[in-house]
Amino acid sequence: MSTNTETGHAKNVATFEDLISFCTAYGATYNPSKAALKLAALNTQLAAANAALQSVKVAKTAYDNATNAREIAFKQIKPLATKIVNALAATDAAPQTVADARSSNNKIQGKRVKAIEKPSAEALAAGAEPVRTASVSQQSFDKLIDNFAQLVATLSAEPKYLPNENELKVTALNTLLTELRAKNTAVINANTALSNARIARDKALYDSPAGLFDNAQAVKVYVKSVYGTKSPQLKQVSALRFSKRSIR
């Protein structure tokens, strides 16, 4: 979500507090019959709106922390995968097994297993069809996990893969794979929590007819009915601007 959007929600809540301040200052003459427009109810709604904004901030921080931790954890995958393939190639493993490992590594690196030959400029000028290829990029975190898991499975089935380096051993790689999955799951869960916090915030601010926005408009109508269309009180509250809803 953009900073401007978040600022818009916070501005609505801050403006609602300004509205309550004006109404409080009117004293006993501000006395609506509708329960939701009474000062006590407006202050309760303000507190709930501030709490909803804070919940989004907390959830967004947790989401950012989770994505940062995932990014850091995944940085090692590409260089590690290359080390693994080289370590396997240095054994007596069958060439086919090494080829399988290289295939998984190419996917991790985002490369094609085999380059596609493209028609020359002369051939294209002579009417040859240009080569149309689908994207081979498999750089999403889900795909990286899947391809790394396949690489680890290939190593696990190869009895001649017995490296002395601790980081290249199958046990260490399985531990890392578990960690990567956990980091990815943490981001998924944090994103769900953030989405739910935003839904709750939007409900508090914009749901009709009891949301902060609708009640703010209703307060303006009440002030107009009590003090008149040309009153300084109406000018006060009319100058307060609320935005209906921003795209999350």
Radius of gyration: 30 Å
Global morphology? elongated
N-end to C-end Cα span: 6 Å
Q: Give the total of domains.
A: 2
Query: Which secondary-structure class do the elements indicate?
Result: mainly alpha
Following the backbone from N to C, one meets helices and strands in this order, namely HHHHHHHHH
Helix count, per DSSP?
9
Number of DSSP strands? 0
Can you give a write-up of this model?
The protein folds into two domains: about 110 residues, no CATH class; about 90 residues, no CATH class. About 70% of the residues lie in helices and about 0% in strands. The protein is built from nine helices and no strands. Helix 1 packs antiparallel against helix 2, helix 6 runs antiparallel to helix 7 and helix 8 packs antiparallel against helix 9. The longest helix is centred in the last third of the chain and has 37 residues. The protein starts with a helix and ends in a 10-residue tail after the last helix. The model has no long low-confidence stretch (mean pLDDT about 90).
Write the layout of secondary structure elements.
Blueprint: H1 3-25, H2 39-74, H3 77-89, H4 95-109, H5 121-125, H6 141-156, H7 170-206, H8 212-227, H9 232-238
